[in-house]
Amino acid sequence: MLLSATETHQHLAKYRAQLAHMGWRQSLHWQMSRAQAQTLLLTYLAGLPAGTRLLWIGEAAPVTALVHLQIQILPLGKAVQVLGREYQEIFVDLEASGWALDALAAISGTLVAGGFLHWLYADFSDPYQQKLASWPYQDHQMRTGFLQYLAERWQFPEACIRCSPTGSYQVTLPVFTCLEQTPQAPSYREQNTCIDRLIQSIHTKAGTWVLTADRGRGKTTALALASARICQHEHTQNWRILLVAARASLIDQILASCASALDVAYVGGQHELTYQGRQLVFMAADRLQKLPADTWHLLIVDEAAALPLSVLQPWLKRIQRHWLATTVEGYEGSGRGFSVRLLPWLQRYQQTKGGVCELLSLQAPIRWQLGDPLEQQIKADFYLTQAKPARFAFATEKVHIQQLTLAERTPAKMAAMFRLLRDAHYQTTGADLRQWWDAPDIQIWVASDQQGRLLGVSVGIFEGGFATDLAQAIHLGQRRPRGHLLAQSLAYHAGMVEAATLTYLRVQRIAVRAQVRRQSVGQALIQAMHTKAMHAGCDFLGTSFAIDKEVLAFWQQVALQPVRLGIQADHASGTYSLMALQPLTPRGQVLYQALRNRYLHTLPQQLAYMMPHLDSALVAPLLYAPEVQTYHWQSYQARELYALQQGRSGWLLSYASLATWWQQVLQQGHIQGWDPHQVAAFSALFVQQHPTEQVQNQYQRLGKKALALWIKEGLTQWRQAHPCAWANMLKQVQD
């Protein structure tokens, strides 16, 4: 049946009332051009109740029809600004905004019950698709595999509006069979229980409370209300509470809701709230290491899965009480990856310290009711359904490695691959999924067992090979073509113009199922990529990753050595990026050696001057240089070390010689059998140049004599383990 614009609006208004009765939300597909939709849009918007909170994503919103509404207009790229807010209607002009899946999924969580999420599109073209591929690929060279998949999923949507040639509208809406039932009101019992458990941290000297929830479950509100109750408690006088998140906007929502519960004013963007002597302060992750820890009583982290363990771990050790909250599913952070990495460490740590580690969860939605059609659609269409843990054993005796062609990137394979990568990498987003599916320069390998079950996946991308004139422009900072991370960074930041002319296969992502890790599956994937790079004539196999001790050990195990450590910490993760290469050709070997020489000579100064707060346990693997085979001494250094080992000199008088000795020990990897705490302490003292008192306190070597004895013991241990190196040093003493 064809309807006029007014009749269509009346039909939708009646259906919206049914949605509100059920406590549900619905996606509504406007399958027509903006010109065709204009009349109906104006009629629909004009008929919305005054004060309706409406979000418009895209451009050219019909503002004249919105004067009675609370309207916010944003491009899709800024959609993260609305996380934590609530809207009654959301319009997404897909022709103008494009199909950024992570942003589209995120804004769906801000829609309250009884509302429509309106998708406006005439076809499945994407004006921003070209950005998914590296230079020099153009739009016509991109595949449209994901958009074709979505077109099939959305061919016959539950709720849609189509425009006829006569200008009338055909409306399709699902029929509710349970309207006579009285839906349950949102239950806050679960949320209140979690808040009560969080408040118990007041009476515990040390502990971690972990709160997990999917979107719309009231996680942020629970943190805010619990923070307000903490501020009102009689035992929290003069408490200082540190709030941390990947984005300041997340904490702004907590502080605003907390202030509302306390009935005090809060100005957005201040990132600080004071209440009767209590203080709540937001701090970005990359500034954490500059703060003294002894003045904080509680650490609250929202979306903890978006922050690596290397950032959180030092603060979880230094502050006694922590609340960690994270989204179970979605692109804000992977709940599965969070549980695989951080939770086991937290449980072990609190067990050794005698502290509490309590897991809390919010299952029931607050903004809508169970069975919500929109939530189900977003999870299914955007691959946000969490993979179920395997209940069978995987066979790794015969691992099959296959490179997927473009035609083999089917929805089923892409879904399985994406879920595995999303669980393993907290920063994996919907944009990555689209790039892996459609970009012509992306290479994908999958590892499977004999039954064809997915064990692991790796994603690579070809980079470099720029012409000399363009390479020179990149080197001078005058050009920055899309993509080509390794080639451009090494040419510009490392100052070697030839790096842009050489070619790379960069490992962009690699993930292995938790059940089969450390069984050579990852190494098999890298070997397949190595073979591909050799056949393609690449000069390097390379990668770039957020620095982490275990990850660095893996790359060094497969013969990729660091060539550049970034100097600026990522604002979201607080970690530094590390680039690693394996040369594959003679000209690649020449550049690799130049990059390694630069890296090894500048790294000690970089660690001391630019990143003294870096975890000292990372210094040893960063400085490891298997190509260095011998020790090199100045005669005075040999004499000073000999006198120190013999007990005839103090270590402070020989500090410079000790620093040279220790850096060479780390380069040659001569620390087998050493106490890891001693290795980290010596690295802090002789490489990062930490103050003596700081090292003494951190590693419990209080007093000058205790530290001096520890240093002498280390020198003696090295002498006994490497007598040839000691003998060669003595020759210079005798000379």
Automatic annotation (TrEMBL):
Gene Ontology MF term list: 18S rRNA cytidine N-acetyltransferase activity; ATP binding; tRNA binding
Span of domain TcmA/NAT10 helicase: 210-383
Keywords for this protein: Acyltransferase, ATP-binding, Nucleotide-binding, Transferase
GO terms for biological process, alphabetical: rRNA acetylation involved in maturation of SSU-rRNA
InterPro entries: Acyl_CoA_acyltransferase, P-loop_NTPase, TcmA/NAT10_helicase, TmcA/NAT10/Kre33, TmcA/NAT10_N
Domain of life: Bacteria
TmcA/NAT10 N-terminal domain location: 10-152
Keyword Transferase recorded: yes
Keyword Acyltransferase tagged: yes
Protein name per the record: tRNA(Met) cytidine acetyltransferase
Taxonomic source organism: Allopseudospirillum japonicum
